[in-house]
Amino acid sequence: MRKTAKLISLATAVPEHILHQEDVAAAAREMFGKRYEAFDRMAPVFLTAGIRKRHAARAIDWYSKPRGWKERTAAYLEVAQGLFVDAANKALDEARITAAEVDVVVTVSSTGIATPSLEARAAQAMGFRTNIQRVPVFGLGCAGGVSGFAIAARLAKAEPGTNVLLVVVELCTLAFRMDQLSKAGIVACALFGDGAAACVLRAGEGGIAEVEVAGEHTWPNTLDIMGWDLDGQGFEVIFAQAIPSFAEANMGPAVARILDRAQIRMDEVDRFVCHPGGTKVLAALERALKIPQGGLDHERAVLREYGNMSAPTVLFVLDRALRAGLPPRSVMTAMGPGFSASCVALKRAA
Question: Catalytic: 189?
Answer without folding.
Answer: no
